[in-house]
Design goal:
Rossmann fold; 38% helix; globular; 284 residues; 3-stranded antiparallel sheet; Pantoate--beta-alanine Ligase, Chain: A,domain 2; binds pantoate; 6-stranded parallel sheet
């Protein structure tokens, strides 16, 4: 596996691959990789001739009160996992390589969509995500890019940004990967104490219950969301940020849950904020 630390190196390799008519898949990550990331790499490996994974903890998507400094990192482990899953190139830039000093250029969707759900408590988050993903698209010039459904709002925002910025890149959404007991895989699960780890199961319990209700034919959002909220509220260590049913494209709240509606939750377990979701009728 090639480990590239500079934009120049990435451009040189990718230019050669494109010259040889090879397709390139990009998996953007912030490192501390787990089976969720591995599933994105596997999908990219199956779909494309060459697979590039970026590992960059992007400062512009963290507010000053968030966990940028504490965000877990394990470069050795990431390299091992990527080698095992057949990644061709790991892009591992420094902050200085990604952002020229005093960088003030951002990519942002100036609409209500990024202000819904996670955008309510993380107002600058999606501007940082769009900016860094745009930069990665410009640097790597992939044919396809792979993102997890766990960050469903991020996936919808990146799809829209890609369309509106005419990137000509296919955005591939990949299903949520869970621990054997149901908890959605997340690098942030590592923050949980053993007691919190048990408590965190209320997220997947609420998601599975909501999905079961919808599959049984209940479409009234309030009924579904109220039952999900009751499950979460029964756990003393859990504090609800949001439990919402929104249109899967616009992220606006809906009264009826039909195919394509995103039912998403964000819950604090102690100090750790976790997210989970399901899409009625499944991910398209
Ligand atoms: O989902 C993530 O890990 C990040 O938001 C992303 C897409 C790599 C951008 O930093």
């Amino acid at each position: 596996m090639i480990i590239a630390k500079t934009v120049k190196e990435v451009r040189e390799y990718v230019a050669k691959w494109h010259k040889d008519n090879l397709t390139v898949g990009l998996v953007p990550t912030m490192g501390y990789l787990h089976e969720g990331h591995a599933s994105l790499v596997d999908k990219a490996r199956a779909d494309c001739d060459k697979v590039v994974v970026s590992d960059f903890v992007n400062p512009t998507q963290f507010a000053p009160n968030e966990d940028l400094e504490a965000y877990p990192r394990d470069f050795e482990h990431d390299c091992k996992l990527l080698e095992e899953h057949g990644c061709d190139m790991l892009f591992y830039p420094s902050v200085e390589e990604m952002y020229v000093p005093n960088s003030k250029t951002f990519v942002e969707i100036l609409d209500e969509m990024p202000k819904q759900l996670c955008g309510k408590t993380r107002p600058i988050h999606f501007r940082g995500v769009c900016t860094v993903v745009s930069k990665l698209f410009n640097i790597v010039q992939p044919d396809k890019a792979f993102f997890g459904q766990k960050d469903a709002q991020q996936l919808a925002i990146i799809r829209r940004m890609t369309r509106e910025m005419s990137y000509g890149i296919e955005i591939v959404g990949c299903p949520i990967i869970r621990e054997s007991d149901g908890l959605a895989k997340s690098s942030r699960n590592t923050y949980l104490s053993p007691e919190e780890r048990k408590a965190a199961l209320v997220l997947s319990k609420a998601i599975f219950h909501g999905e079961k209700l919808v599959k049984s034919g209940i479409s009234d959002s309030k009924t579904v969301l109220d039952e999900m909220k009751a499950i979460i509220s029964a756990e003393p260590l859990a504090k609800i940020d949001y439990v919402s049913a929104v249109d899967g494209v616009t992220m606006f709240p809906v009264d009826k849950i039909s195919n394509g509606v995103l039912v998403a939750i964000a819950v604090y377990i102690g100090k750790t904020r976790l997210i989970d979701n399901f899409i009625a009728g499944g991910l398209k």
